[in-house]
Design goal:
Blueprint lengths: L1 E4 L6 E5 L15 E2 L5 E7 L2 E6 L2 E2 L5 E10 L2 E8 L7 E6 L3 E4 L6 E7 L2 E8 L2 E8 L4 E4 L12 E6 L4 E6 L10 E5 L16 H11 L3 E6 L8 H4 L8 H17 L3 E11 L1 H12 L6 E5 L10 H8 L6 H6 L13 E6 L8 H12 L5 E5 L9 H18 L5 H4 L13 E8 L2 E8 L1
Parallel strand pairs: 17-18, 17-19, 19-20, 20-21, 21-22
Antiparallel strand pairs: 1-2, 3-4, 4-5, 5-6, 7-8, 8-9, 9-10, 11-12, 12-13, 13-14, 15-16, 16-18, 23-24
Protein backbone atom coordinates (compact mmCIF):
# COMPACT_ATOMS: atom_id res chain seq x y z
CA UNK A 1 0.00 0.00 0.00
CA UNK A 2 1.11 3.57 -0.74
CA UNK A 3 -0.28 6.02 1.79
CA UNK A 4 -0.37 9.82 1.93
CA UNK A 5 0.03 11.27 5.40
CA UNK A 6 -1.22 14.59 6.72
CA UNK A 7 1.77 16.12 8.48
CA UNK A 8 -0.43 18.02 10.91
CA UNK A 9 -2.82 15.30 12.02
CA UNK A 10 -1.05 12.09 11.06
CA UNK A 11 -4.16 10.98 9.21
CA UNK A 12 -3.37 8.70 6.24
CA UNK A 13 -5.12 8.19 2.92
CA UNK A 14 -4.70 5.13 0.72
CA UNK A 15 -3.34 6.11 -2.71
CA UNK A 16 -2.48 2.82 -4.37
CA UNK A 17 -2.46 -0.91 -3.66
CA UNK A 18 -0.48 -3.66 -5.35
CA UNK A 19 -1.03 -7.40 -5.02
CA UNK A 20 0.76 -10.38 -6.51
CA UNK A 21 0.47 -14.14 -6.17
CA UNK A 22 4.21 -14.33 -5.45
CA UNK A 23 5.46 -11.01 -4.09
CA UNK A 24 5.33 -7.28 -4.79
CA UNK A 25 8.77 -6.12 -5.89
CA UNK A 26 10.03 -3.12 -3.91
CA UNK A 27 11.76 -0.62 -6.22
CA UNK A 28 14.38 1.68 -4.63
CA UNK A 29 13.47 5.35 -5.00
CA UNK A 30 9.71 4.79 -4.86
CA UNK A 31 7.23 6.12 -4.09
CA UNK A 32 8.14 9.59 -5.39
CA UNK A 33 6.37 12.73 -6.64
CA UNK A 34 6.89 14.94 -9.66
CA UNK A 35 6.61 18.72 -9.33
CA UNK A 36 3.05 18.43 -10.66
CA UNK A 37 2.22 16.08 -7.79
CA UNK A 38 1.97 12.90 -9.85
CA UNK A 39 2.73 9.76 -7.87
CA UNK A 40 5.68 7.74 -9.20
CA UNK A 41 5.71 3.98 -8.54
CA UNK A 42 6.90 0.76 -10.18
CA UNK A 43 4.63 -2.23 -10.68
CA UNK A 44 4.39 -5.47 -12.64
CA UNK A 45 1.84 -5.22 -15.46
CA UNK A 46 1.34 -7.50 -18.47
CA UNK A 47 4.64 -9.31 -18.00
CA UNK A 48 6.88 -6.26 -17.58
CA UNK A 49 8.12 -4.26 -14.59
CA UNK A 50 6.90 -0.78 -15.52
CA UNK A 51 7.32 2.80 -14.43
CA UNK A 52 3.94 4.21 -13.41
CA UNK A 53 3.45 7.99 -13.31
CA UNK A 54 0.11 9.39 -12.21
CA UNK A 55 -1.47 5.95 -12.47
CA UNK A 56 -0.38 5.38 -16.09
CA UNK A 57 2.32 2.90 -17.14
CA UNK A 58 4.80 4.87 -19.27
CA UNK A 59 7.39 2.21 -20.21
CA UNK A 60 6.98 -0.36 -23.01
CA UNK A 61 6.86 -4.15 -23.04
CA UNK A 62 10.19 -5.80 -22.28
CA UNK A 63 11.78 -2.82 -20.52
CA UNK A 64 12.08 -3.75 -16.84
CA UNK A 65 12.55 -0.95 -14.32
CA UNK A 66 15.05 -1.50 -11.55
CA UNK A 67 14.92 1.72 -9.53
CA UNK A 68 13.88 5.37 -9.65
CA UNK A 69 16.90 7.68 -9.55
CA UNK A 70 14.96 10.85 -8.81
CA UNK A 71 12.61 13.47 -10.22
CA UNK A 72 13.51 16.83 -11.73
CA UNK A 73 10.43 18.93 -12.29
CA UNK A 74 8.00 16.67 -14.11
CA UNK A 75 10.80 14.45 -15.45
CA UNK A 76 11.51 11.06 -13.86
CA UNK A 77 14.92 9.39 -14.08
CA UNK A 78 15.10 5.62 -13.63
CA UNK A 79 17.24 2.57 -14.37
CA UNK A 80 15.97 -0.26 -16.53
CA UNK A 81 17.07 -3.40 -18.35
CA UNK A 82 15.89 -4.48 -21.79
CA UNK A 83 15.05 -8.18 -21.59
CA UNK A 84 16.62 -8.67 -25.03
CA UNK A 85 20.03 -7.98 -23.44
CA UNK A 86 20.03 -8.32 -19.65
CA UNK A 87 23.83 -7.90 -19.59
CA UNK A 88 23.27 -4.11 -19.71
CA UNK A 89 21.44 -1.61 -17.50
CA UNK A 90 20.83 1.98 -18.61
CA UNK A 91 19.69 5.27 -17.12
CA UNK A 92 16.45 6.53 -18.65
CA UNK A 93 14.41 9.74 -18.52
CA UNK A 94 10.66 10.09 -18.82
CA UNK A 95 9.13 13.52 -19.46
CA UNK A 96 5.36 13.91 -20.03
CA UNK A 97 5.95 16.26 -22.93
CA UNK A 98 8.92 14.51 -24.53
CA UNK A 99 8.34 10.85 -23.72
CA UNK A 100 11.14 8.35 -23.03
CA UNK A 101 14.83 8.90 -23.74
CA UNK A 102 17.95 6.97 -22.74
CA UNK A 103 20.66 8.90 -20.89
CA UNK A 104 23.47 6.35 -21.30
CA UNK A 105 24.84 4.72 -24.43
CA UNK A 106 27.89 2.54 -23.84
CA UNK A 107 27.29 -1.15 -23.00
CA UNK A 108 27.53 -1.56 -19.23
CA UNK A 109 25.65 -0.84 -16.03
CA UNK A 110 24.59 2.78 -15.61
CA UNK A 111 22.91 4.47 -12.66
CA UNK A 112 22.43 8.02 -11.51
CA UNK A 113 20.88 10.61 -9.25
CA UNK A 114 18.66 13.51 -10.33
CA UNK A 115 17.50 16.59 -8.41
CA UNK A 116 17.40 20.36 -8.70
CA UNK A 117 18.29 20.59 -12.36
CA UNK A 118 21.34 18.35 -12.02
CA UNK A 119 21.84 14.73 -13.07
CA UNK A 120 24.84 12.67 -12.03
CA UNK A 121 25.41 9.63 -14.27
CA UNK A 122 27.44 6.77 -12.80
CA UNK A 123 28.74 4.24 -15.32
CA UNK A 124 30.50 0.91 -14.99
CA UNK A 125 31.68 -0.69 -18.23
CA UNK A 126 34.28 -3.17 -19.39
CA UNK A 127 36.71 -0.23 -19.49
CA UNK A 128 36.16 0.65 -15.82
CA UNK A 129 34.14 3.21 -13.88
CA UNK A 130 33.20 6.75 -14.91
CA UNK A 131 30.97 9.57 -13.72
CA UNK A 132 29.54 12.69 -15.36
CA UNK A 133 27.32 15.61 -14.44
CA UNK A 134 24.67 17.17 -16.72
CA UNK A 135 22.67 20.37 -16.19
CA UNK A 136 19.37 21.60 -17.60
CA UNK A 137 21.10 24.01 -19.97
CA UNK A 138 22.71 21.07 -21.76
CA UNK A 139 26.23 21.46 -20.41
CA UNK A 140 28.06 18.39 -19.17
CA UNK A 141 31.25 17.69 -17.26
CA UNK A 142 33.14 14.50 -16.53
CA UNK A 143 34.25 13.66 -13.01
CA UNK A 144 37.78 12.29 -12.99
CA UNK A 145 38.08 8.69 -11.84
CA UNK A 146 41.07 7.73 -9.71
CA UNK A 147 40.14 4.05 -9.68
CA UNK A 148 43.19 1.82 -9.87
CA UNK A 149 43.66 -0.27 -12.99
CA UNK A 150 43.67 -4.01 -12.25
CA UNK A 151 46.91 -5.74 -13.14
CA UNK A 152 44.94 -8.73 -14.35
CA UNK A 153 42.03 -7.75 -16.59
CA UNK A 154 39.14 -10.08 -17.41
CA UNK A 155 39.13 -11.82 -20.80
CA UNK A 156 35.43 -12.56 -21.27
CA UNK A 157 33.57 -14.44 -23.97
CA UNK A 158 29.89 -13.46 -23.74
CA UNK A 159 27.46 -16.29 -24.48
CA UNK A 160 23.75 -16.97 -24.80
CA UNK A 161 23.10 -20.68 -24.29
CA UNK A 162 20.36 -23.26 -23.95
CA UNK A 163 16.63 -23.31 -24.53
CA UNK A 164 16.10 -20.54 -21.96
CA UNK A 165 18.74 -18.32 -23.58
CA UNK A 166 20.80 -18.17 -20.42
CA UNK A 167 23.35 -15.36 -20.33
CA UNK A 168 26.82 -16.63 -19.51
CA UNK A 169 30.42 -15.43 -19.42
CA UNK A 170 33.35 -17.75 -20.09
CA UNK A 171 36.88 -16.82 -18.97
CA UNK A 172 39.84 -18.81 -20.25
CA UNK A 173 43.55 -18.56 -19.37
CA UNK A 174 45.51 -16.01 -21.38
CA UNK A 175 47.92 -18.80 -22.31
CA UNK A 176 45.17 -21.19 -23.45
CA UNK A 177 45.52 -22.79 -26.88
CA UNK A 178 42.91 -25.06 -28.53
CA UNK A 179 43.58 -28.66 -27.61
CA UNK A 180 44.52 -27.84 -24.00
CA UNK A 181 42.15 -29.65 -21.65
CA UNK A 182 40.93 -27.41 -18.84
CA UNK A 183 39.09 -28.28 -15.64
CA UNK A 184 35.94 -26.21 -15.22
CA UNK A 185 35.07 -23.86 -12.37
CA UNK A 186 31.54 -22.49 -12.18
CA UNK A 187 31.40 -19.14 -10.38
CA UNK A 188 27.73 -18.16 -9.97
CA UNK A 189 25.76 -15.88 -7.72
CA UNK A 190 22.45 -16.90 -9.24
CA UNK A 191 20.16 -15.26 -6.70
CA UNK A 192 17.59 -12.46 -6.69
CA UNK A 193 19.85 -9.68 -5.36
CA UNK A 194 21.97 -9.15 -8.48
CA UNK A 195 23.16 -10.35 -11.88
CA UNK A 196 26.75 -11.38 -12.39
CA UNK A 197 26.74 -11.58 -16.19
CA UNK A 198 26.85 -7.85 -16.86
CA UNK A 199 29.23 -5.94 -19.12
CA UNK A 200 31.42 -4.45 -16.43
CA UNK A 201 34.99 -4.91 -15.33
CA UNK A 202 34.22 -5.66 -11.72
CA UNK A 203 36.23 -7.24 -8.94
CA UNK A 204 34.34 -10.53 -9.30
CA UNK A 205 35.39 -10.94 -12.92
CA UNK A 206 38.98 -10.07 -11.98
CA UNK A 207 38.89 -12.89 -9.43
CA UNK A 208 37.42 -15.20 -12.05
CA UNK A 209 40.26 -14.36 -14.43
CA UNK A 210 42.76 -15.03 -11.65
CA UNK A 211 41.33 -18.53 -11.27
CA UNK A 212 41.38 -18.91 -15.06
CA UNK A 213 45.09 -18.09 -15.10
CA UNK A 214 45.63 -20.97 -12.69
CA UNK A 215 44.35 -23.37 -15.34
CA UNK A 216 40.56 -23.31 -15.11
CA UNK A 217 37.84 -22.53 -17.62
CA UNK A 218 35.63 -20.30 -15.46
CA UNK A 219 31.92 -20.16 -16.29
CA UNK A 220 29.55 -17.55 -14.86
CA UNK A 221 25.81 -17.95 -15.57
CA UNK A 222 22.69 -16.03 -14.56
CA UNK A 223 19.72 -18.37 -14.34
CA UNK A 224 16.12 -18.13 -13.29
CA UNK A 225 15.50 -16.00 -10.25
CA UNK A 226 18.06 -13.34 -11.15
CA UNK A 227 16.78 -9.78 -11.80
CA UNK A 228 16.53 -7.91 -15.09
CA UNK A 229 14.54 -10.34 -17.21
CA UNK A 230 11.05 -9.52 -16.00
CA UNK A 231 8.60 -10.63 -13.31
CA UNK A 232 7.98 -14.10 -14.69
CA UNK A 233 11.70 -14.88 -14.78
CA UNK A 234 12.46 -13.56 -11.31
CA UNK A 235 9.36 -15.06 -9.68
CA UNK A 236 9.88 -18.53 -11.16
CA UNK A 237 11.74 -19.45 -7.94
CA UNK A 238 8.81 -18.59 -5.66
CA UNK A 239 8.43 -21.37 -3.10
CA UNK A 240 11.68 -23.15 -4.05
CA UNK A 241 14.78 -20.98 -4.17
CA UNK A 242 17.35 -23.56 -5.34
CA UNK A 243 15.95 -26.14 -7.76
CA UNK A 244 15.47 -24.03 -10.92
CA UNK A 245 18.74 -22.07 -10.49
CA UNK A 246 20.68 -25.32 -10.08
CA UNK A 247 19.06 -26.76 -13.19
CA UNK A 248 20.12 -23.66 -15.14
CA UNK A 249 23.74 -23.98 -14.00
CA UNK A 250 23.83 -27.57 -15.25
CA UNK A 251 22.12 -26.66 -18.54
CA UNK A 252 24.61 -23.85 -19.14
CA UNK A 253 27.56 -26.14 -18.47
CA UNK A 254 26.15 -28.75 -20.86
CA UNK A 255 25.69 -26.19 -23.63
CA UNK A 256 29.06 -24.47 -23.20
CA UNK A 257 30.91 -27.79 -23.09
CA UNK A 258 29.50 -28.58 -26.54
CA UNK A 259 30.77 -25.27 -27.93
CA UNK A 260 34.16 -25.61 -26.18
CA UNK A 261 35.15 -29.29 -26.20
CA UNK A 262 38.38 -28.60 -24.26
CA UNK A 263 36.33 -28.22 -21.08
CA UNK A 264 36.99 -31.30 -18.96
CA UNK A 265 33.62 -32.55 -17.68
CA UNK A 266 35.43 -35.03 -15.48
CA UNK A 267 36.85 -32.18 -13.34
CA UNK A 268 34.17 -29.62 -12.50
CA UNK A 269 34.21 -27.41 -9.43
CA UNK A 270 31.85 -24.67 -8.28
CA UNK A 271 32.44 -21.72 -5.94
CA UNK A 272 30.04 -19.07 -4.69
CA UNK A 273 29.35 -16.59 -1.93
CA UNK A 274 26.15 -15.82 0.02
CA UNK A 275 23.28 -17.11 -2.14
CA UNK A 276 25.96 -18.38 -4.51
CA UNK A 277 27.45 -20.31 -1.60
CA UNK A 278 24.16 -22.09 -1.00
CA UNK A 279 23.85 -22.78 -4.72
CA UNK A 280 27.36 -24.25 -4.76
CA UNK A 281 26.68 -26.48 -1.77
CA UNK A 282 23.41 -27.82 -3.14
CA UNK A 283 25.05 -28.38 -6.54
CA UNK A 284 27.68 -30.74 -5.17
CA UNK A 285 25.11 -32.46 -2.92
CA UNK A 286 22.35 -33.04 -5.49
CA UNK A 287 24.43 -33.43 -8.62
CA UNK A 288 27.68 -35.26 -7.77
CA UNK A 289 27.50 -36.67 -11.29
CA UNK A 290 28.19 -33.13 -12.59
CA UNK A 291 30.09 -31.36 -9.79
CA UNK A 292 33.18 -32.85 -8.19
CA UNK A 293 34.03 -30.21 -5.55
CA UNK A 294 32.46 -27.06 -4.11
CA UNK A 295 33.45 -23.96 -2.18
CA UNK A 296 30.53 -22.48 -0.23
CA UNK A 297 31.11 -19.07 1.32
CA UNK A 298 28.83 -17.24 3.81
CA UNK A 299 25.86 -19.30 2.68
CA UNK A 300 22.32 -19.25 4.16
CA UNK A 301 22.22 -23.00 4.74
CA UNK A 302 19.14 -22.92 7.00
CA UNK A 303 16.39 -20.76 5.50
CA UNK A 304 14.45 -20.71 8.76
CA UNK A 305 17.37 -18.85 10.30
CA UNK A 306 17.56 -16.05 7.70
CA UNK A 307 15.84 -12.66 8.11
CA UNK A 308 12.09 -12.73 7.60
CA UNK A 309 11.63 -9.73 5.28
CA UNK A 310 13.89 -11.19 2.58
CA UNK A 311 13.21 -14.90 3.02
CA UNK A 312 9.42 -14.76 3.34
CA UNK A 313 9.22 -12.81 0.10
CA UNK A 314 10.41 -15.87 -1.79
CA UNK A 315 9.23 -18.76 0.39
CA UNK A 316 6.20 -17.47 2.24
CA UNK A 317 5.69 -18.22 5.94
CA UNK A 318 7.58 -21.26 7.30
CA UNK A 319 4.42 -22.79 8.75
CA UNK A 320 2.64 -22.47 5.40
CA UNK A 321 5.48 -23.77 3.18
CA UNK A 322 7.64 -26.11 5.28
CA UNK A 323 8.52 -28.22 2.21
CA UNK A 324 9.79 -25.13 0.38
CA UNK A 325 12.00 -24.18 3.31
CA UNK A 326 13.40 -27.71 3.38
CA UNK A 327 14.09 -27.75 -0.38
CA UNK A 328 15.81 -24.36 -0.13
CA UNK A 329 18.00 -25.32 2.87
CA UNK A 330 21.18 -27.21 2.08
CA UNK A 331 21.52 -28.66 5.59
CA UNK A 332 18.37 -30.77 5.15
CA UNK A 333 20.25 -32.73 2.45
CA UNK A 334 23.64 -32.81 4.19
CA UNK A 335 23.57 -36.61 4.52
CA UNK A 336 23.69 -36.92 0.72
CA UNK A 337 27.11 -35.27 0.35
CA UNK A 338 29.66 -37.49 -1.41
CA UNK A 339 32.07 -34.90 -2.86
CA UNK A 340 34.63 -32.52 -1.28
CA UNK A 341 33.00 -29.42 0.24
CA UNK A 342 34.73 -26.39 1.77
CA UNK A 343 32.56 -24.18 4.00
CA UNK A 344 33.76 -20.59 4.65
CA UNK A 345 32.17 -18.01 6.93
CA UNK A 346 33.06 -14.70 8.57
CA UNK A 347 32.72 -15.02 12.33
CA UNK A 348 31.37 -11.44 12.57
CA UNK A 349 28.85 -11.82 9.74
CA UNK A 350 25.78 -9.75 10.67
CA UNK A 351 23.84 -10.57 7.49
CA UNK A 352 24.06 -14.34 7.08
CA UNK A 353 25.11 -15.17 10.63
CA UNK A 354 27.81 -17.78 11.18
CA UNK A 355 25.25 -20.12 12.78
CA UNK A 356 24.26 -21.13 9.22
CA UNK A 357 27.64 -22.73 8.55
CA UNK A 358 27.89 -24.13 12.08
CA UNK A 359 24.53 -25.89 11.68
CA UNK A 360 25.51 -27.15 8.22
CA UNK A 361 28.77 -28.53 9.57
CA UNK A 362 26.93 -30.14 12.49
CA UNK A 363 24.50 -31.82 10.10
CA UNK A 364 27.39 -33.11 7.98
CA UNK A 365 29.21 -34.43 11.06
CA UNK A 366 26.07 -36.14 12.32
CA UNK A 367 25.73 -37.86 8.94
CA UNK A 368 29.41 -38.84 8.88
CA UNK A 369 30.19 -36.73 5.82
CA UNK A 370 33.77 -35.40 5.64
CA UNK A 371 34.10 -31.70 4.84
CA UNK A 372 36.25 -28.68 5.61
CA UNK A 373 35.35 -25.49 7.50
CA UNK A 374 37.34 -22.24 7.25
CA UNK A 375 36.31 -19.57 9.80
CA UNK A 376 37.34 -15.98 9.03
CA UNK A 377 38.03 -14.24 12.33
CA UNK A 378 36.74 -10.67 12.46
CA UNK A 379 35.22 -10.77 8.97
CA UNK A 380 31.65 -9.72 8.26
CA UNK A 381 29.55 -10.90 5.31
CA UNK A 382 32.08 -9.80 2.70
CA UNK A 383 35.74 -9.88 3.79
CA UNK A 384 37.52 -6.74 2.60
CA UNK A 385 40.91 -6.88 4.31
CA UNK A 386 43.50 -7.30 1.56
CA UNK A 387 45.52 -9.96 3.37
CA UNK A 388 42.42 -11.95 4.28
CA UNK A 389 41.07 -11.85 0.73
CA UNK A 390 44.44 -12.81 -0.74
CA UNK A 391 44.96 -15.77 1.56
CA UNK A 392 41.33 -16.83 1.19
CA UNK A 393 41.66 -17.04 -2.60
CA UNK A 394 44.85 -19.08 -2.25
CA UNK A 395 43.15 -21.44 0.19
CA UNK A 396 40.21 -21.92 -2.19
CA UNK A 397 42.67 -22.61 -5.01
CA UNK A 398 44.55 -25.17 -2.94
CA UNK A 399 41.29 -26.92 -2.05
CA UNK A 400 40.11 -27.02 -5.66
CA UNK A 401 43.52 -28.15 -6.89
CA UNK A 402 43.58 -31.02 -4.44
CA UNK A 403 39.93 -31.99 -4.90
CA UNK A 404 39.90 -31.98 -8.69
CA UNK A 405 43.03 -34.06 -8.98
CA UNK A 406 45.77 -31.89 -10.35
CA UNK A 407 43.83 -28.92 -11.69
CA UNK A 408 45.13 -25.42 -11.26
CA UNK A 409 48.70 -24.44 -10.43
CA UNK A 410 50.19 -27.92 -10.57
CA UNK A 411 48.99 -28.17 -14.15
CA UNK A 412 50.10 -24.70 -15.22
CA UNK A 413 53.72 -25.08 -14.30
CA UNK A 414 54.19 -28.13 -16.52
CA UNK A 415 56.41 -28.16 -19.60
CA UNK A 416 53.60 -27.23 -22.00
CA UNK A 417 52.25 -24.11 -20.28
CA UNK A 418 54.04 -20.74 -20.14
CA UNK A 419 54.44 -18.67 -17.03
CA UNK A 420 51.99 -15.81 -16.78
CA UNK A 421 51.52 -12.65 -14.80
CA UNK A 422 49.02 -12.71 -11.98
CA UNK A 423 49.41 -9.72 -9.68
CA UNK A 424 52.26 -7.48 -10.74
CA UNK A 425 55.31 -9.72 -10.96
CA UNK A 426 54.35 -12.17 -8.22
CA UNK A 427 53.90 -15.80 -9.10
CA UNK A 428 52.53 -18.56 -6.91
CA UNK A 429 54.70 -21.65 -7.02
CA UNK A 430 53.19 -24.89 -5.68
CA UNK A 431 55.00 -27.15 -3.33
CA UNK A 432 53.87 -30.03 -1.14
CA UNK A 433 54.18 -30.43 2.58
CA UNK A 434 53.04 -33.29 4.77
CA UNK A 435 49.78 -31.54 5.69
CA UNK A 436 48.77 -30.86 2.09
CA UNK A 437 49.30 -28.26 -0.59
CA UNK A 438 50.59 -24.81 0.27
CA UNK A 439 52.21 -22.00 -1.67
CA UNK A 440 55.17 -19.69 -1.48
CA UNK A 441 55.65 -16.46 -3.40
CA UNK A 442 58.59 -16.00 -5.75
CA UNK A 443 59.64 -12.72 -7.36
CA UNK A 444 60.19 -13.28 -11.09
Amino acid sequence: MVLAADAGTGQTTLLRTQRDDAWVELAPGTPARTSAGDLVTVCDRDGSRRLVVGGAAVTPDGLHVGSVSGTDGDAVYFTATDERDPTEQHLWRYDPGQGLSRCSAEPGVHDGEAAGGTVVVLSRTEAGAAAAVAWRDGTRAAIASLQAEPLLKPRITWLTVGARELRAALLLPSWYRPGTRLPVLLSPYGGPAMRRVVRVRGAAFCEDQWFAEQGFAVLVTDGRGTPGRGPRWSKSVFGDALSAPLEDQVDALDAVAVQFPDLDRGRVGIRGWSYGGALSAIAVIRRPDVFHAAVSGAAPHDQRLYDTHWRERFLGLPQQNPEGYDRSSTMTEAASLTRPLLLIHGMADDNVVVAHTLRMSAALLAAGRPHQVLPLSGSTHMPTDADTVSQLLRHELAFLTESLGGAGLTQIYGDTAPLHQLLGHWFLVPRRVASGPCFRARWM
